[in-house]
Amino acid sequence: MQPTIRYQRNSTTTFLSSTSAFVETKWQAMFEGRNEALVTLALLFISHEIIYFARCIPYLIADQIPSLQKYKIQQKTIQNTAQNQWKVFRYVLISHFVFELPMIVGFHPVAVYFGMAISSVPFPPLSKMAFQIFLFFVFEDFFHYWAHRGLHYGPFYKHIHKLHHEWSAPFGLAAEYAHPIEVMILGTGTIAGPLMWCYATGDLHLITTLTWMTLRLFQAVEAHSGYDFPWSTHNWLPGWSGAEHHDYHHMAFTNNFSTSFRWWDHIFGTNKKYLAYKERKASEAKAKKAL
After folding, report:
1. Dihedrals φ, ψ of 205, to 5°?
2. pLDDT tens figures, 8-60
3. Which residues contact 73 (CB under 8 A, 6 or more apart)?
4. Cα(226)–Cα(195) distance, integer angstroms
5. Is 210 exposed, middle or buried (0-12, 13-18, 19+ CB in 10 A)?
6. d(CA 242, CA 230)
């Protein structure tokens, strides 16, 4: 038994090492002989577009499968129509080019100034990357909680955040359907964590930042998907927010201001209406089952 386990571990280690070496070679080749700032710009923007829209595809497919509609969180309010999806797609795509692309242009000089490794290899160990990304999730969640809560204040909501709340029953594409000022504010939480860490430690690689941004996009689209599948992240990762948590925020326009975790809403008491709603729905389901 032990030799078999040891062989499996060795095989896994060999596979990871060879994969890492392959990616590192391609990474070096991508930058070699080219302007590092332009390559970084292209890498970040193109990967953002591919990952964001590709992440939406499974939910677009789910919309067309009747057997999966039982997992739709809001059964009565239907906003994920083809017309609405197309409207959001156009707005988000234009927003990416007009507002997000200029912000990405400024990333490389700032990252280099703070000491981020860009084109160098080898990559950091996976354990280090995982630890740093976890810290970025925690920081971004705390930042997002307070920034998001602030955007619900009177004039900020009316003139900025209300656009995002056009959809009371959200769908994946609507994750980045927001006012440019909101994109800038909440986007700060995503990039400030890595930059602050880099400034404080001088130990961060672009590949870690890119991985973090990828996971952040996955989280954002899932939270707005409008679906609560048995395999959804919050059903197997304790404390994760997910669509079930964020969907209530869009439906009720209050509570559940955090993005990744449920901690801050619990600590600061901004989940009481949500918990009362869940309890009421559970009681209704129990009474219906008893009939």
Report:
1. -115, 150
2. 556 666 777 778 889 999 999 999 999 999 999 999 999 999 999 999 999 99
3. 169, 226, 227, 228, 243, 244, 247
4. 32
5. middle
6. 12
